[in-house]
Structures are given as C-alpha cells and as structure tokens.
Design a protein that fits this description.
The chain is α/β, with parallel strands linked by helices and 71 residues long. The chain is built from two helices and three strands, in the order βαβαβ.
Length: 71
Amino acid sequence: ATASAAGGPYDVPVACLPDEHHALGGLAVALLLCRRQRRVRWLGAALPLTDHERVCAETRPAHVLLSVSRA
C-alpha cells in the first residue's frame, strides 16, 4: 500500500477498528486497490476512531475501508 499526500476522491483510507489487531484482510484489499490504481492510506490495526475521523476530515475520501475479523 502506498501513502498519498494529496488526498481526494481516489484516496482510500484503510484501517482496523479499535481493538482489532488482525490486519491481513485490510492489507489484502489495500493491495488490490493499489493494483487498480487507487491511492491507499494504510492507517494500521487498532486505530482509534478519532484518528480515523481526523484523516477522513483532512482528505475527504470518496470511499473508506474498515477491516473487521470478529463475528
């Protein structure tokens, strides 16, 4: 996954919810998006919601991906 400095509609933030440490699913989708010429911001596992909200407010993405592995 690559990080984008500009943000915008093709910038997709990818993160795991708080207390979620299984990042493989999110990383796999982030890789797929990169291969489809989308700029991906990998924000990591167990990201606090306030951090995710800040990134979305700064970049105004058209899409957001949250990875969850629990049922």
